[in-house]
Design goal:
Length: 255
């Protein structure tokens, strides 16, 4: 791989991201760089490089550095981990060459037995991936479950993997993508909850302040003008809050 050509491709990726509000999906990046024949490790470096340029790479969550201490598991999570490892003790794991042959069989024949054996062979990869993302907001067991689901779904799309990508690398990438996407979804949900709480607090403060100034209950229309907020938005927030706004809801009246 020529360094200058690779650098040029990265610059083109940056320009592509600018046309998409600085957001790219891992699938887009892989398709864009398919002629470069990159390894999985190199793709991870590309994702990290783009992230350092303030480009959001959907489906990518940086893994902890190996030298960094892993997040401590709760007693329940540690028990889950030990049980998972105990169940894997009964499996016989293949050498890499045999594993690649099993990948080819699963893809070319679509045999359910081959897919089941391949799934078993990649359970340690699921565990490893989930462990690397532990401590970021989702319980360890949930991360493992998401990885297993991603693996099972990937078994059905082996033939659709990006050109130049091995079946084994594809399955590992899909495990990682499933786990990281679950984390992204959880973080987005948390951010939405935080934003809603902030808006409710802002509304509650506005209601109290205006009520104190007028020394009476305020109408939605008065509150709308005071806070420069549409009446419909205020109504929606009050409905979402229910009784959770405390006394503030008692200081408003229908217009």
């Amino acid at each position: 791989m020529e360094q200058q050509e690779f650098q040029k491709k990265l610059e083109e990726l940056g320009r592509l991201a600018q046309t998409k509000e600085n957001r790219l999906r891992t699938e887009e990046i892989r398709e864009f760089l398919k002629d470069m024949e990159l390894t999985e490790e190199q793709f991870q470096l590309v994702y990290a490089y783009l992230a350092s340029r303030m480009i959001t790479v959907e489906g990518y969550v940086p893994a902890r550095e190996e030298a960094e201490e892993e997040a401590e598991l709760t007693p329940e999570e540690q028990s889950f981990l030990e049980q998972y490892q105990k169940e894997m003790e009964y499996l016989t794991f293949l050498e890499e060459e045999e594993l690649l042959e099993l990948c080819r069989e699963a893809e070319e024949t679509g045999d359910g037995g081959a897919k089941a054996r391949l799934t078993e062979q990649l359970l340690p990869e699921v565990l490893k991936t989930a462990r690397s993302f532990a401590g970021r907001g989702l319980p360890f067991g949930d991360l493992v479950q998401e990885g297993n689901i991603g693996l099972m779904l990937a078994m059905e799309t082996l033939g659709l993997r990006p050109e130049g990508m091995t079946a084994l690398d594809y399955l590992k990438e899909e495990i990682r993508t499933a786990v990281s996407q679950a984390l992204e979804d959880q973080q987005a949900e948390q951010q939405a909850g935080d934003l809603l709480a902030e808006r409710l607090n802002h509304l509650s403060d506005g209601i109290r302040k205006l009520s104190d100034e007028l020394e009476r209950k305020v109408s939605l229309e008065e509150l709308s003008m005071f806070m420069d907020m549409p009446v419909e938005e205020i109504e929606d927030l009050l409905k979402l809050a229910g009784e959770g706004t405390g006394d503030s809801g008692d200081n408003t009246e229908e217009g």
